[in-house]
């Protein structure tokens, strides 16, 4: 058992320009009860949160239970935050079990322990009650039990008596005394100083972030001893004041009116002698030595101033999943939607939703000025009872034929449905002819006023039968001439304002058909015969497959992209919305800080994302499973590529992780759903963007818009699903890999940005931030400024593929920029390796054809590519093995300016030697001859590749150029300078890629284990991304220079050294 449960050494915490805690040093002895006092805003809560590793100090160290941080001792710590919080809908027993499991307590004895504790706090029989059913005081006792249910060694209580009635105050005080007797270490922050006096054996006090008091209670009382005696005579007399002041040792006397006198003693006065003297003056009702209270000390001092990680993540994920998926609302909503959809399809198949034209009733006026009045005659025939009955029978027959092909419903139901469709209301329309010479204005008035039920007026003339002009006919004519020509083929329609548009449209089509038929007749042709000539039977395409011929399903193939797109979108949207609501609930009910006492913000966020992701995946599997079952039932499952089913899951996880991170970040920044709308609006706009891209992508899935948007992380899953669903479109494997990789990188960046926002937002209340405010939280207190990231990116990009050490120059540049502090050295060293990812992207961009050749070779499609890939792996192997073996030695001994300078000097000597000996034979040759002399990259043997790999191992000494050693090694094994440079650049892909992944994983793991900030949290996400981006662009420019990409190594070295 350590001597001190908590040791705080020189801790400082800043929030931008505000210093919350300043150079604070404290120790809490094991087994003590310590009061943590201070005025509002003194830094108490910030200090407690740093002790709990919710915040991290900017300077100094904190040890908890002899560990480097509370993260390593979470199961041994109980924390009750000031802001109380429980899951309102959760049952008491389930809540306590959940908190206990987060603290590592499991087993059959857990329920027994919960029942015992509930009995002790006078809450028997509430295990199955929801927390919201309890009173506020009862909820506080439940949360107090959640703090101590796992029997912690260290208990931190922030205002434990707040809101409790006197009976429960005494109960909690008794529990604290019991835990004190059991040897527990207890810290509690309180404003009830009387309770601190009763419970504490040690007190420390801070004000404005600085310690102003620290020590055992007895020593503090002695230190602040007021040296005052309270004297209350049995009978007050005016002479007592002077008599008491004359006692030896009394400095002054204060009249307390009816409460007697306060005798203030001189320094060194004997209290016993003074009290004896007071009794000699007059009999006393009360005579006692006044002791300093904590309240007096507090006021006087304040007035002096200016006024198991994976298990926890899984536990969180399970709770999130069950809290959503096990509810009646979710079950009903998830299952009801497919059920309702099936019922709607059934009803539609049975004709229940068959729409009919509205019933036309009234009088249609027809002013037919044609020679034969064929329009009026045609309309009279069309609206005769006989014509309506014939049309009804035709519709019925057609409907019955259609229903025969539907595999649902019985024969009786189908017959009834056909009857329903056919029995449409027979129009009750009267056709009234208006002579061309009659008053049209009177006819218009009748239609306007609906007089005599007139609701339509058609005006047709002989010009209506003429052929309308084309655009070519109108070219070059005046406006008047064009107006005359445009009257050809036209007729006029006047309608009542209440007439349904569908009725007008139906009659208009009938008039147009009558006019067209009249034109055909006047040309001497038979309209019926022309109609027969234009008639085609239904032609079904047949699909030829290895299994034989099959019916083509072109219509279903066109629907497939929509189905998969909507499945993906609904699943992502649902999971993100559930996560948003869950985060807001935990923050608004103040349960968030309880969770953060048992788990880090990063773990909490990841657990919530996994849990709600399982909800979204469940929705995807339910709806997708129903779709696959239906496709199999209708024999169209072959339309769905197997690769699409697999990639749909991959794209779901990518899309969900991206948008869930955004939703969780937005939820952590607000306290209720109304506040969330301003922050979620941009997210919803981003989520709706794929709908706007639907048409251009489906029309041209291999076009520039489709390809470019496939590489934009938030759009990648949706765009790729649309493209993969298109018939006959085969996405290249390299594009699938590249887009997925870019999308995963975007997800990684978004998750880390969300963690930054989440850590700040979950503990902030009040006015919610704007979207711009969230961006500021991402770069909250970054140690690395943007301009420093740009400089380091330029150094990396320019030096990586030139024969000078990029890592060595990055170390020197970091020191020059002041980024060599002890507290950030680990993160900066990791940054200097990870930023080399920009060089990887540059090679991928400039040597795409070579990379694709190697990929084809790996899959057995390119012999030369397979050989090149094999040689790259052989050359990479030595550095991979030795790098892991000697990584710690290299970091501790060689990642320093002095070893780097030594390596640079030795590298210079090596370059001069190679220049004078190996390249001496090429001095008198032209550049073209020097470039073509030697072996090509395809002729490199495995032994030569291994030799180049051994040369690369020398570059593990920072300051030694990797490209210098590998290009020189290639030259020594006989490669042409150009090919040696190309092999060096390609070898950088696995070498730098492996170093980046290894360094990143190591930094994240070690920082997590030590409870410290990782490189993204210390240096900032945006500076890291900016550095990689600058390194990518500058590396592309460096590689693309003539000396680096196509010239000799000698010319490159001379350029570097100014020779």
From TrEMBL:
Membrane topology recorded in Swiss-Prot or TrEMBL: Multi-pass membrane protein
Pfam families: ABC2_membrane_3, ABC_tran, BacA, DrrA1-3_C
Compartments where located: Cell membrane
Residues passing through the membrane, by range: 559-584, 605-624, 644-666, 678-697, 703-722, 734-755, 830-847, 868-886, 898-914
GO molecular function ontology, one term from the record: undecaprenyl-diphosphatase activity
Source domain of life: Eukaryota
Keywords: ATP-binding, Cell membrane, Hydrolase, Membrane, Nucleotide-binding, Transmembrane, Transmembrane helix, Transport
Record's GO cellular component terms: plasma membrane
Annotated SMART domains: AAA
Main location as per UniProt: membrane
Alphabetized InterPro entries for the sequence: AAA+_ATPase, ABC2_TM, ABC_transporter-like_ATP-bd, ABC_transporter-like_CS, ABC_transporter_ATP-binding, DrrA1/2-like_C, P-loop_NTPase, UppP
Keyword Transcription regulation attached: no
PROSITE patterns: ABC_TRANSPORTER_1, ABC_TRANSPORTER_2
Enzyme class label: hydrolase
DNA damage found in the keyword field: no
Residues annotated as domain ABC transporter: 6-233
Catalytic reaction(s) noted: di-trans,octa-cis-undecaprenyl diphosphate + H2O = di-trans,octa-cis-undecaprenyl phosphate + phosphate + H(+)
Enzyme Commission number(s) from the entry: 3.6.1.27
Family named by the database record: Belongs to the ABC transporter superfamily.
PANTHER family per the UniProt record, alphabetical: ABC TRANSPORTER ATP-BINDING PROTEIN, ABC TRANSPORTER ATP-BINDING PROTEIN NATA
Name of the protein in question: Undecaprenyl-diphosphatase
Species classification: Eukaryota, Sar, Alveolata, Dinophyceae, Suessiales
């Amino acid at each position: 058992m350590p001597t001190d449960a908590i040791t705080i050494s020189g801790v400082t915490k800043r929030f931008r320009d505000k210093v919350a805690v300043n150079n604070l040093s404290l120790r809490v002895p094991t087994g003590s009860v310590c009061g943590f006092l201070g005025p509002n805003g003194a830094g108490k809560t910030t200090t407690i949160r740093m002790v709990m590793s919710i915040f991290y100090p900017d300077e100094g160290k904190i040890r908890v239970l002899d560990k480097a941080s509370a993260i390593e001792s979470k199961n041994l710590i109980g924390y009750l935050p000031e802001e109380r919080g429980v899951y309102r809908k959760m049952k008491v027993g389930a809540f306590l079990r959940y908190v206990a499991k987060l603290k590592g307590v499991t087993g059959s004895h857990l329920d027994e322990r919960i029942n015992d504790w509930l009995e002790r706090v006078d809450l028997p029989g509430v295990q199955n009650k929801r927390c919201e059913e309890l009173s506020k005081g009862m909820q506080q006792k439940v949360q107090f039990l959640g703090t101590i249910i796992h029997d912690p060694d260290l208990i931190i209580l922030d205002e434990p008596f707040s809101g409790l009635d006197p009976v429960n105050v005494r109960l909690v005080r008794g529990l604290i005394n019991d835990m004190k007797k059991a040897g527990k270490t207890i810290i509690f922050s309180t404003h009830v100083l009387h309770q601190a006096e009763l419970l504490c054996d040690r007190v420390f006090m801070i004000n404005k972030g600085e310690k102003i008091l620290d020590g055992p209670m007895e020593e503090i009382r002695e230190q602040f001893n007021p040296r005052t005696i309270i004297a209350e005579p049995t009978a007050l007399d005016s002479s007592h004041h002077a008599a008491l002041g004359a006692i030896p040792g009394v400095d002054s006397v204060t009249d307390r009116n009816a409460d007697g006198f306060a005798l203030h003693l001189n320094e060194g006065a004997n209290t016993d002698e003074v009290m004896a003297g007071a009794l000699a003056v007059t009999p006393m009702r009360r005579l006692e030595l006044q002791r300093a209270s904590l309240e007096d000390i507090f006021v006087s001092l304040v007035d002096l101033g200016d006024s198991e990680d994976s298990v926890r993540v899984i536990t969180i994920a399970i709770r999130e999943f069950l809290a959503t998926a096990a509810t009646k609302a979710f079950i009903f909503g998830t299952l009801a939607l497919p059920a309702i959809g099936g019922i709607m399809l059934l009803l539609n198949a049975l004709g229940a939703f068959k729409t009919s034209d509205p019933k036309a009733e009234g009088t249609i006026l027809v002013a037919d000025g044609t020679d034969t009045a064929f329009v009026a005659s045609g309309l009279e025939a069309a609206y005769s009872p006989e014509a309506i009955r014939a049309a009804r029978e035709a519709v019925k027959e057609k409907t019955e034929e259609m229903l025969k092909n539907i595999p649902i419903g019985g024969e009786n139901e189908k017959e009834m449905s056909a009857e329903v469709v056919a029995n449409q209301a027979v129009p009750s329309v009267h056709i009234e002819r208006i002579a061309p010479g009659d008053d049209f204005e009177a006819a218009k008035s009748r239609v306007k006023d609906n007089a005599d039920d007139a609701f339509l007026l058609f005006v047709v003339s002989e010009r209506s039968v003429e052929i309308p002009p084309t655009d070519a006919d109108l070219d070059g004519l005046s406006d008047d001439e064009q107006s005359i020509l445009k009257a050809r083929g036209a007729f006029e329609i006047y309608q009542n304002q209440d007439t349904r548009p569908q009725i007008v449209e139906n009659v208009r089509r009938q008039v147009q058909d009558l006019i067209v038929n009249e034109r055909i007749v006047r040309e001497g042709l038979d309209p019926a015969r022309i109609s027969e000539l234009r008639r085609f039977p239904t032609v079904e395409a047949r699909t030829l497959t290895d299994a034989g011929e099959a019916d083509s399903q072109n219509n279903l193939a066109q629907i497939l992209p929509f189905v998969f797109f909507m499945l993906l979108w609904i699943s992502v949207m649902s999971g993100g919305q559930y996560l948003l609501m869950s985060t807001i609930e935990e923050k608004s009910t103040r349960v968030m800080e309880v969770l953060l006492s048992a788990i880090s913000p990063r773990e909490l966020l990841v657990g919530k994302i996994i849990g709600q992701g399982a909800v979204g995946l469940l929705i995807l599997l339910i709806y997708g499973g129903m779709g696959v079952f239906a496709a199999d039932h209708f024999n169209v499952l072959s339309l769905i590529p197997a690769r699409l089913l697999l990639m749909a899951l991959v794209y779901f996880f990518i899309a969900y992780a991206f948008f869930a991170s955004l939703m969780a970040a937005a939820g952590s920044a607000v306290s209720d759903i109304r506040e969330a709308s301003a922050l979620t609006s941009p997210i919803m706009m981003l989520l709706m963007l794929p709908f706007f891209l639907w048409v251009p992508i489906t029309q041209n899935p291999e076009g520039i818009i489709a390809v470019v948007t496939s590489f934009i992380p938030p759009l990648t899953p949706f765009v790729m699903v649309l493209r993969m669903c298109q018939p006959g479109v085969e996405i290249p494997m390299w594009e699938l890999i590249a887009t997925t990789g870019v999308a995963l990188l975007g997800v990684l960046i978004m998750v880390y940005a969300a963690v930054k926002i989440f850590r700040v937002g979950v503990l902030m209340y009040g006015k919610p931030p704007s979207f711009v405010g969230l961006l500021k939280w991402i770069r909250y207190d970054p140690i690395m400024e943007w301009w420093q990231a740009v400089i380091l990116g330029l150094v990396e990009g320019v030096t990586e593929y030139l024969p000078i050490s990029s890592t060595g120059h990055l170390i020197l540049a970091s020191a020059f920029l002041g980024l060599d502090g002890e507290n950030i050295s680990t993160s900066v060293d990791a940054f200097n390796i990870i930023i080399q990812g920009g060089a990887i992207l540059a090679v991928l961009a400039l040597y795409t054809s070579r990379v694709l050749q190697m990929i084809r070779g790996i899959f057995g499609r390119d012999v030369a590519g397979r050989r090149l890939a094999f040689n790259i792996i052989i050359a990479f192997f030595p550095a991979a093995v030795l790098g892991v073996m000697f990584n710690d030695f290299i970091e501790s001994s060689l990642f320093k300016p002095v070893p780097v300078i030594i390596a640079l000097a030795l590298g210079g000597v090596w370059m001069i030697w190679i220049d004078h000996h190996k390249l001496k034979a090429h001095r008198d040759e032209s550049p073209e001859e020097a470039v073509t002399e030697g072996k090509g990259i395809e002729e490199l043997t495995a032994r030569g590749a291994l030799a180049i790999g051994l040369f690369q191992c020398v570059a593990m000494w920072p300051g030694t150029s990797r490209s210098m050693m590998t290009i020189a090694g290639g030259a020594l094994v006989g490669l042409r300078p150009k090919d040696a440079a190309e092999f060096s650049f390609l070898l950088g892909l696995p070498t730098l890629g492996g170093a980046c992944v290894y360094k990143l994983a190591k930094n994240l793991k070690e920082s997590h284990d030590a409870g410290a900030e990782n490189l993204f949290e210390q240096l900032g996400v945006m500076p890291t991304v900016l550095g990689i981006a600058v390194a990518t662009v500058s590396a592309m420019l460096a590689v693309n220079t003539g000396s680096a990409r196509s010239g000799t190594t000698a010319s490159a070295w001379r350029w570097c050294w100014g020779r």
